[in-house]
Amino acid sequence: MSDVHVVILAAGKGTRMKSARPKVLHEVAGRPMIEHVLAAASRLSPASITVVVGHQGEAVRGALAAHGHLEFVVQEPQLGTAHALLTTEPLLRDQSGSLVLLSGDVPALSASTLQQLAKIHRHAGAATTVVTSHVAEPHGYGRIVRDGGKIARIVEEKDASPAERAITEINAGIYAFELAGLFDAVRSIGAANAQREYYLPDLVSIHRQAGRVVETVTVDDAADILGINSRAELASVSRGLRQRKNAELMAAGVTIEDPATTFIDQDVEVGADTIIKPGVSLERGTRIGSDCVIHSGSRLVGSTLGDKAVILNHCVVSDSIVGAGASIGPFAHLRGDAHVGPRAKVGNFVELKKTVLGQGSKASHLSYLGDAVIGADVNIGAGTITCNYDGVRKQVTTIADGAFIGSHTQLIAPVTVGEGAYVGTGTTIRENVPPGALAVSAGKQRNIEGWVEQRKKRNTE
Ligand code: UD1
Ligand code: CA
User: Fold this and answer.
1) Mean pLDDT value across the chain
2) Which residues contact 263 (CB under 8 A, 6 or more apart)?
3) What pLDDT, on a 0 to 100 scale, did the predictor assign at position 13?
4) How many C-beta neighbours within 10 Å does residue 68 have?
């Protein structure tokens, strides 16, 4: 068992977001920012993870309910970061080892930065190790004041002298602490400062004055440790995370024609030699095979694509599976557990919901296929509609292998079309069609000769 305990601070109000939603639940590159922090923290394999909540604590807790292994403590009122850490004392005071402290609003943090922090902290035998970075715009951050090269203290923007404000080395708000004696030291922090808050960074000068070792880890790329305090920072940190993901995929053999307009969530996988055109979004756990092409304007959410599948322009594919070599779109909508078989084709203005379209089958134009089980090598004519909902229940339409459904057909579920059967154009199918049969329901056509001429005469009389 690891002797690292993680604490994530997420009790603050996030005033500068001007939002009714807790700051840490705002999404960055497709998921709540605190989820990114949790993902990085888990890579340390910590003995425990404690989240300090306060402002809208119930909402934060609810959003993280799926993470079974988290501890929550409530900080009420919120009197500063040192006060926030003290709320974890009942849970952590009897633990040994180190405590890694993170902020819920620093989502770009990489697991490697955290691993480096833990390692340097251990090797130095430090009481506190602070993550720092040099930034061009230090405004708003605590500044690292050094003395003979060693960190002496951290001064907050609002308490800093003009000379201190000129310092460009900033406190990332990420620390490792030796647990032994930690809470006693934190308790000695006062609130005699511009914000009347208990500042956790004050621990640096307290430890230095007590003659204890305080180390720093300086990250080269400040993008890693940017905190989010406003909507503008939300957008820029999101952009940074997406760029990082796109770069990883390109390095692994994926062609991304225009990374600036390509939105790929962190947990998405894409196989080599797949080509992604501009303006594509790949979201929430989507898995794309190799050698696929995804054309502009398409959005895939929680979906899986087999190798060599093609998504043409402007499709929406959610919670669905597309088989190898299948072709979707343009302008198709697959949702709620649609399952398109290998080499099948879904054409323009076709919607599939909770429907299996078997291997090699085609629905090329203007159809709604809902709650249907369609076999292999079936042809679905233009304008075919499964009438799956009777106002009360959803019913299943079954179409067996090799069947041919003529254009403009309505299939009133529950109904089955047998293997190799043929449904004539414009048929309303209310009863099962046996295998190999032809089904027609339209009445016999009648032509009235000379009708147009007669009507003209009538209208001029
Ligand atoms: C803090 C640091 C600053 C550092 C910056 C890095 C302090 C006093 N300052 O400033 O040196 O450069 O982070 O991003 O620590 N929180 C609580 N309870 C509280 C107050 C805050 O849980 O009572 C949480 C917030 O929800 C947030 C984190 O602590 O997740 C940081 O608080 P925030 O107010 O954003 O601190 P900064 O002003 O950014
Ligand atoms: Ca902050």
Assistant:
1) 96
2) 29, 30, 242, 280, 281, 282, 283
3) 86
4) 6
Assess if CATH 2.160.10.10 describes domain 253-439: yes
Task: Note whether 36 and 109 are within 8 A (CB).
Answer: yes
Assess whether the C-beta atom of 189 lies below 6 angstroms from ligand 1. Answer: no
Q: What are the angstrom distances between the C-alpha of 424 and each of 191, 271, 316, 443?
A: 82, 42, 31, 12
Q: Which atom of ligand 1 is nearest to the CA of 83?
A: 23
* Contact present, 39 and 267 (Cβ < 8 Å): no
| pTM above threshold 0.85 | yes
User: In this predicted model, what pLDDT tens digit does every residue of 336-389 receive, in sequence order?
Assistant: 999 999 999 999 999 999 999 999 999 999 999 999 999 999 999 999 999 999
Ligand 2 centroid to 48 CA: how many Å?
23
Fold classification of 4-224 is: Spore Coat Polysaccharide Biosynthesis Protein SpsA; Chain A (3.90.550)
Residue 461: band (very low, low, confident or very high) from pLDDT cuts 50, 70, 90: confident
Alpha-carbon span 339 to 173, nearest angstrom: 46
Q: How far is the CA of 311 from the centre of ligand 2 (A)?
A: 41
Does residue 10 surpass a pLDDT of 80? yes
pLDDT value at position 1? Answer: 57
Contact 8, 244 (CB under 8 A): no
Q: Which amino acid type is present at position 51?
A: V
Strand, helix or coil for residue 204 = helix
The residue ranges of every structural domain in the chain are 4-224, 253-439
